[in-house]
Design brief:
By secondary structure, this protein is of the alpha/beta class. The protein has a single domain, classed as TIM Barrel (Alpha-Beta Barrel), CATH 3.20.20. About 35% of the residues lie in helices and about 15% in strands. The protein contains eleven helices and twelve strands. Strands 1-2-5-6-7-8-9-12 form an eight-stranded parallel barrel, surrounded by five helices. A two-stranded antiparallel sheet has the order 3-4. Strand 6, helix 4 and strand 7 form a beta-alpha-beta unit. Helix 1 runs parallel beside helix 2 and helix 1 runs parallel beside helix 8. The longest helix is centred in the C-terminal third of the chain and has 19 residues. The chain is globular. About 40% of the residues are buried. This is U32 family peptidase.
Length: about 325
C-alpha cells in the first residue's frame, strides 16, 4: 500500500506544538514579509478577518524549524503567491533566503516566474508546485519534472480517475488538499480583491446579504456562491490506491488553532486506521461513538450536507 503523509498548517510556535501533538508528518507556513503592508509572498493576505496567517517574526520561524528538526517533522515554506512583479524579485529572493537560513526543508511556489528565480538562485532546496499552478495534464507534469520540481499540488476539481491516470504517468509526488476546497483553479476568481472594510477571505465561501428586488426583503448571510467540497476522509483508501503521497490541510487563518489541530488529528487517525486495514465505514462508526467534535461539528457541517470531495453527490455533480 502506498504511504500517505499528512501536511498541516502552522502560523505560530503555539500552533506548531498543537500539530506535533496531532502527530502530523509535515507542516506548511509562511513568513510575514518586511516589505509589504497586507499582501504577502504566499497565497494569503497577512491577515484574514483580523487573524494573522503567517509566522510573525524570523525568531519565531527559527524556533518552529528547530522544533520540526527535533521531532522529525519537515517544514514547507509557502512562497506561492500567484504573481510577484519583476520589481519585487530581489525582495522575494531575500525572503526565500531568510527561510532557507532558518532551516525550512522545502519551498512551495505557484507561478513560473518564481519557480525560475528560485531554480536559478541555486538555494539547493527541494521545490514543490502548489495547486494554484493548476497542473492538469501530463505535458504540464513532465515540464515541471524537467524544471527540477519534486512534488505537485493536484487541482481541487480533479477526480479520482484523473488522479490515478496522472500518477501512472509521472515521477512527481502528488499532494491533494484534504479539506475546504474551492474550484479547480481555486484562488483565481479575484473575489479576494473585492473592496470591503474587512477582508472576506475566500469570496466563494463568504455569506452575502441578498435583497429581493420585488419584496425588498433582505436575506442575511446567504452563501450564494458556495458550492465547494470540504472533506476527503471517506476517500482516503481510494486516494492511496490512486497514488497520492500527501494530503495537505489548510487553515493557517483559522482563529482557533486548537480546532485546526483537532481536524488534523482526525485525518491522521483515519490514515493510520486505513493503513491497519480498516474500512472508512468502520472508522466513521468509531468516530460516531467516540468523538465529540465529529458529532457536533464535522458530521452536521460536512457529511450531512454532502460536501465530499471525491464522492458522487449533488455538490460534485454541479461542480464548477
Amino acid at each position: 500500500m502506498n504511504s500517505l503523509k499528512l501536511i498541516a498548517p502552522v502560523r505560530s510556535v503555539f500552533m506548531m506544538k498543537q500539530m506535533l501533538e496531532a502527530k502530523v508528518d509535515e507542516v506548511h507556513l509562511g513568513l510575514k514579509p518586511l516589505q509589504l503592508i497586507n499582501l504577502s509572498f504566499d497565497s494569503r493576505h497577512q491577515f484574514v478577518n483580523g487573524t494573522p496567517t503567517q509566522v510573525e517574526s524570523l525568531e519565531e520561524l527559527n524556533e518552529i524549524t528547530a522544533m520540526g528538526k527535533e521531532n522529525k517533522v519537515k517544514v514547507n515554506f509557502m512562497a506561492n503567491s500567484k504573481y510577484v512583479p519583476e520589481s519585487l524579485k530581489r525582495d522575494y529572493l531575500f525572503h526565500i533566503k531568510l527561510a532557507v537560513e532558518a532551516g525550512v526543508n522545502r519551498i512551495t511556489v505557484s507561478n513560473f516566474s518564481t519557480l525560475n528565480w528560485i531554480s536559478q538562485a541555486d538555494f539547493n532546496i527541494p521545490i514543490d508546485v502548489g495547486t494554484f499552478m493548476a497542473a492538469t495534464n501530463i505535458g504540464y507534469y513532465r515540464y515541471l519534472e524537467s524544471m527540477g520540481v519534486q512534488r505537485v499540488g493536484i487541482p481541487q476539481g480533479m477526480t479520482l480517475d484523473e488522479i490515478n491516470d496522472i500518477s501512472s504517468k509521472t515521477n512527481l509526488e502528488l499532494i491533494v488538499t484534504g479539506n475546504f476546497g474551492g474550484g479547480n483553479v481555486c484562488g483565481h476568481c479575484r473575489l479576494e480583491e473585492c473592496p470591503t472594510e474587512n477582508e472576506i477571505g475566500q469570496g466563494c465561501r463568504t455569506g452575502y446579504k441578498v435583497t429581493d428586488s420585488f419584496s425588498g426583503v433582505d436575506l442575511e448571510n446567504g452563501q450564494v456562491l458556495d458550492g465547494a467540497t470540504d472533506c476527503s476522509l471517506c476517500s482516503i483508501p481510494e486516494l492511496i490506491d490512486a497514488g497520492v503521497n500527501y494530503i495537505k490541510l489548510i487553515g493557517r487563518e483559522v482563529p482557533n488553532p486548537i480546532t485546526t489541530s483537532k481536524i488534523c488529528q482526525i485525518y491522521k487517525t483515519w490514515i493510520t486506521e486505513v493503513e491497519k486495514g480498516r474500512t472508512s465505514k468502520q472508522i466513521y462508526n468509531d468516530l460516531d461513538q467516540e468523538d465529540l467534535m465529529w458529532n457536533m461539528m464535522w458530521k452536521p457541517r460536512f457529511c450531512e450536507k454532502k460536501r465530499c470531495s471525491y464522492l458522487n453527490t449533488p455538490v460534485t455533480n454541479s461542480y464548477v
